[in-house]
Amino acid sequence: MNKEVFFSMEKDKRAEAVNKLLIGRNQSEVAELIGVSQSILSKEMMKEDFTYIARENKYFKFVRSPKDAIWLKNQNNSTESLEMAFLRDNLEKLKQLVTDFEEGIVLSLDKEIYSPGAIFVNKNIRINQAVYEKFIVHCSKQFPHLKIQDLIAQSLLEFVGKYSTDLKPHS
After folding, report:
1. Nearby residues of 122 by Cβ (< 8 Å), 6 or more positions away
2. What confidence score (pLDDT) does residue 81 get?
């Protein structure tokens, strides 16, 4: 490989070619073979995010974060973006979420329930066991990600909103 070929090669192909040349040679020898200084060789490789690991005598692609690693994997396999990969991987879940929303199954807790300034109290109540069990079973099936105390608080707020005459405008 000469200097012109080195500078005109696509970055991944350049790294492969340089790594092949490094077999049985050191960095200085490869730079001399190409017709550039060792510092130019290193600089050009670093421009393309390749870093030299001396103990391996090889250039490796430098990955800055886990997101970059996913992006690189996607770039190597296809031209698919991170967003498209996420949509493809989660399509069925997203379809179910839209269906649940359209059917009114999605529950959105009122901000008052988890307000940082809220004062919480413990209260004991007597409740029909069968009614409570129905509530618990329904909540564990439909909303397993929510706390029972938050669901009870939401139910209480909805009850107050529905039946309170103080909050309704007078005619």
Report:
1. none
2. 72
Q: What is the pTM of this model?
A: 0.41
Task: Give the 3-state secondary structure of residue 126.
Answer: coil
* Residue 58, beta-bridge partner list: 53
Phi, psi of 59 (to 5 degrees): -95, 140
Q: CA torsion sign, 24 to 28 to 33 to 36?
A: positive
Q: Please, are residues 15 and 50 in contact by the beta-carbon 8 Å criterion?
A: yes
Distance between CA 14 and CA 40 in Å, rounded? 14
DSSP class of 56: T
Distance separating the N- and C-terminal Cα atoms of the chain = 89
Please list, in sequence order, all residues whose beta carbon lies within 8 angstroms of the beta carbon of residue 128, skipping any fewer than 6 positions away. none
DSSP 10: -
Confidence at 130, pLDDT banded by 50, 70, 90: very high
Tell me if 7 sits within 8 A of 44, measured CB to CB.
Answer: yes
- Please state the rounded mean pLDDT for residues 146-156: 92
d(Cα 108, Cα 48) in Å, to the nearest integer? 47
Burial class (CB in 10 A: 0-12, 13-18, 19+), 50: buried
pLDDT at 170: 45
